[in-house]
Design brief:
294 residues, 7-stranded mixed β-sheet, 7 strands
């Protein structure tokens, strides 16, 4: 399932899931240039490249997604640092994409950070970051996570090698089927030293609305958004995971002063809408939460 991410062989805005990492990097680069930036990523612009700008230009007219991507990045930074302070000695970032946290966060040098992604993504990232030095012990592993036996072998090895491991699946679950999410949750929980898991999910209601409005390309294209978690964090309890920390992106964006465009208008419309309309839109939410073993 590996594919080049340098712009060759791309007939549309997104033809492989790896393209979404370029899109996210564009928004990290834009945020980093602000005087009141929530984070500073000096590598984002070079990672995004011209292909990233092209994708963002086609998907994000009016910066419609920037607020949520930036908010998610900032909140996830905090959750990671909290987990490290609580004793996490290793981090496993599944489908790490173009994440640069090992380079930009104030991490202890003793921390082990393992990134997993497609071979082409890892090769691209290593070439763009050849002159950069991570702040912790960084390891990259080329692996297609849809190969369940291979990922189970990897999980088993990392479980043996670490005591308190934090798993990150930023931007991953939405592209999986419900069956695949369940299988991944089970595989992670089968490892006793995988203590916590950071997840971002949309509600099914929000996902359905986005696919009909802003992100039609992800409804029928070669890369599809499929998974919305019914019940949010509670969905994962059936697999042995319970919520440790829960953040709603809409509330966090308000706190961080990165609200969606025309947020004031949506708030006004909600105040004058009938009850059934307000109830429907109240279910439009993105969650970012840290799970722990039940």
């Amino acid at each position: 399932m590996s594919a080049p991410i340098d712009g060759t062989g791309h007939p549309g805005p997104v033809s492989h899931v790896s393209d979404t990492a370029l899109w996210v990097a564009v928004h990290r680069a834009t945020e980093s240039k602000r005087k009141d930036a929530l984070f500073h990523d000096p590598y984002a612009e070079r990672l995004a490249g011209e292909r990233g700008k092209e994708i963002a230009g086609q998907l994000d007219r009016g910066q419609g997604s920037a607020w949520s991507i930036i908010t998610r990045t900032a909140v996830l930074d905090d959750l990671i640092m909290n987990a490290v302070r609580d004793g996490a000695d290793a981090i496993l970032n599944l489908t790490a994409g173009l994440d640069t946290r090992p380079y930009r966060l104030s991490l202890p040098s003793s921390l082990r950070w393992v990134e997993v992604d497609f071979p082409d993504m890892i090769a691209y990232k290593e070439s763009r970051l050849a002159d950069a030095s991570p702040r912790c012990a960084l390891e990259r592993i080329a692996l297609d996570l849809t190969d369940r036996p291979a990922r189970q072998r990897l999980f088993a090895r990392l479980n043996e090698e670490n005591d308190q491991l934090l798993v990150i699946t930023e931007g991953l679950l939405i592209y999986l089927t419900q069956y695949d999410v369940a299988a991944l949750a089970e595989d992670l929980h089968a490892m006793p030293h995988f203590r916590r898991w950071i997840v971002d999910v949309l509600t099914p209601e929000l996902l359905e609305w986005l696919l009909k409005s802003h992100f039609k390309t992800f409804a029928t294209g070669s890369v599809q958004m499929r998974f919305g978690a019914p019940g949010g964090p509670a969905y994962f309890e059936q697999f042995g995971w319970r919520a440790h920390t829960v953040r709603k992106i809409t509330l966090e964006s308000r706190r961080l002063k990165r609200q969606m465009p025309r947020a004031w208008l949506f708030k006004l419309l909600a105040s004058i809408s009938p009850k059934h309309v307000r109830e429907r839109f109240s279910k439009f939410e993105t969650y970012l939460f840290m799970l722990q073993r039940a």
